[in-house]
Amino acid sequence: MNFSSGLVMAAWLALAFGQAREIQKPVATGTSGQKTEPSAKSATPPQGTFNDAEYKIGPQDVLRIDVWKEAEVSRAVPVRPDGKISLPLLNDVQAAGLTPMKLAAVIADGLTKYINNPQVTVTVSEINSRRIYVTGEVSRAGAFPLLPNMTVLQALSSSGGFTQFAKLKNIYVLRTEDGKQVKLPFNYKDAVNGKKPEQNVLLQPGDVIVVP
Q1: Between β-strands 208-211 and 131-136, what pairing exists: parallel, antiparallel or unpaired?
Q2: Rounded to an integer, what distance in angstroms lies between the CA atom of residue 160 and that of residue 57?
Q3: Is residue 211 a contact partner of residue 166, using CB atoms and an 8 Å limit?
Q4: Secondary element (H or E) of residue 29
């Protein structure tokens, strides 16, 4: 093989290798249920995006609004304390109390005055309206997002484990019911051994898990 032939072969191999490495663009589902390409500024949802169909949006949540082929409208927006979000063309839109799918339909309906057949996707990137708290002898105390059907055991697993001083049999949940604080006992050792499953209750917004 002469020198010129070698250059041609090298160029051909480089081109083939580059084509093989091309990655197909991800797709997102719009309100119509059709597969559509994401907007220019939103290839994929942020890592950790919460995407539960039954979740009700609340104040201080952060939403990602994607409108297909409309990068100027697509953006991340916080839900204000009054439950509304601000979007170009639509100004204020009520978001609190709606599911992401319902809000996407509301936004799409409003945009039909300005955009032909708008395809809208809404995802919750930060859950700040529904939180539970873990305090006491744990590695990482603080506030945590309340996920759907989250139990005491699941919440404790998010706190990074216990310190050597933790009293695992005397953990309890503080909950406010009808304006009064109630104390729900939780024995960690029983829970991990499948005993007293009734103590592993579903958590509610504002619950505080105390590890003495």
Answers
A1: parallel
A2: 27
A3: yes
A4: strand 28-29
Length of the chain: 212
Query: Which residues, in sequence order, are CB contacts of 138 under 8 Å at separation 6+?
Result: 156, 159, 160, 161, 162, 163, 166, 211
Across all residues in the chain, what is the average pLDDT?
80
Structural domains of the chain, with CATH: 28-126 (3.30.1950.10), 131-211 (3.10.560.10)
Question: How far is Cα 193 from Cα 161, in angstroms, rounded to an integer?
Answer: 17
Contact call for residues 204 and 174 (beta carbons, < 8 A) = no
Could you give the 3-state DSSP secondary structure of residue 199? helix
111 compared with 30, residue with greater pLDDT = 111
* Cβ-based neighbour number of residue 2 at 10 Å: 6
In tens, the pLDDT along 144-170 reads 988 888 999 999 998 999 999 999 999
Q: What is the mean pLDDT of residues 194-211?
A: 94
What pLDDT shows up at residue 52?
62
| Strands of the sheet with 62-67, listed across from one edge | 75-78, 62-67, 120-126
Q: Which residue do the tokens 């995407």 mark?
A: 51
